[in-house]
Amino acid sequence: xxxxxxxxxxxxxxxxxFLFIPFLIIFVYVVYKKSTGQGSADSAxxxxxxxxxxxxxxxxxxxxxxxVISISYMPTVQTARAAVDEANIQQVNITAGSWFYDIxxxxxxxxxxxxxxxxxxxxxxxxxxxxxxxxIYSPDGDVLFxxxxxxxxKGPTSIVYTFDKPGTYTVRCLEYCGINHHNMRDQLIVVAGxx
Length: 195
Description:
The chain is 32% helix and 30% strand. It contains 4 helices and 9 strands, in the order H-H-H-H-E-E-E-E-E-E-E-E-E.
């Protein structure tokens, strides 16, 4: 029904503003109360000075500006942008279970069925038993992204991530899923294109 809010940057921006506008109203109210002396008995000020109005306007402009600039970095926006070029996206399907990943990549490269090429990859995952997550770590050990895999959903959870360098990437579950959770790991090998 409201999918447009999550499939483009402006919808995400509207949601951010919707959630933060009450805080902005309270901020302006508190500043106004303090400046007019209604909050204390010893203040004789009758309103906001020009400097105070400029300061509040600057805070508002910076707040909105930072949110507008950050839209392109949101994972949902990156996924929506990548979806425009469906022909070049590699599809990886994941099924998580206690305590394993069943990962199917579009083709076997260098003898491994856990291999993709550098470029955009859509990960679509689901859980067969309990709550799991699917987190990919770079070869350097940084978390690139994580997605929750919940049982009982009608469709899979999906995200598009663009790999920009080859290497062996570690897959781990970051959602406690039982006694053997610490052993729930796998690998994804990213190779240079045109193999």
